[in-house]
Amino acid sequence: MAHTSGxxxxxxxxxxxxxxxxxxxxxxxxxxxxxxxxxxxxMNPGASIKCRSSLHMITKALESGALKPGEPVLEITSGNQxxxxxxxxxxxxxxxxxxxxxxxxxxxxxxxxxxGAKCVRVPQVEGTYGNVTLADVKxxxxxxxxxxxxTGAYYVNQFNNEMNSDAHYDTTGPEIWRQxxxxxxxxxxxxGTAGTFTGTSRYLKEKNPNIxxxxxxxxxxxxxxxxxITKPLHLLQGSGYGCVPNLxxxxxxxxxxxxxxxxxLEYKKLIGEKEGLFVGYTSAANVLAAVKLLxxxxxxxxxxxxxxxxxxxxxxxxxxxxxxxx
Length: 326
Fold this sequence. Notes:
Oligomer: single chain
Number of helices: 8
Order of helices and strands: EEHEHEHEHEHEHEEHHE
Helix content: 25-40%
């Protein structure tokens, strides 16, 4: 039987599934005044916002010749960047090794290894499972840099790679601007590498300097706000490392909002029960901060606050299991 001709909509690979995530209104959780709009970044193929920067950093490295086709890649990760890189490297044919603190949820290691990457879990220095400190990150970094030296693999270096923030200037910011019909009153985001906040806020401020750009920090670990670190252990994995990241720029920051672990747990539950979305801790922190901002009276009554649902709740588990050890 002859096929009828017609238009098709077929993606060439998982790379074409990255970005262009839907923007959803959280009207059941926050009926007003004002509105909270959230980018569904958990719908990226690596189940987090980090797919965007993974694709951009690897693509640019290939374009510049810093990375050659088929060459091995190595990165230090808290998990989501590793999952994003695993998606990109699987499709483009790069062997990938990742070092990650053993304190980060093991689901992330399982995810990375399912995509063909090798995940080396580095023992914690001072944190506990689910609570990763700067010292733990440094231990994973030390191991990763040693492996780069030994293997000659291309080091992605997300914390210092300008292509990280450029990914969000090129994609996240423009998508938000388009999806809201150019109506954004505030943008709220947690900070890990600071790539998301730096790139997105730069784009939005260029479009409208009056957009209020807010950083979310865990209570007791608020270096961007200028506070001493009193609580390095918190639930926001991949965020709030207790230092001002190198990619962070104060130029587009209007204010910071602090969130406690207890509040974040409550909002993680609320987002699930009210909106039918199972998200991670930084996503809950973002939504909570958006609520706090709207409650503060600092915005006009009918303000639209845009934030991000950074990853899926499926990336978190309370019980560690065995994966590749150091």
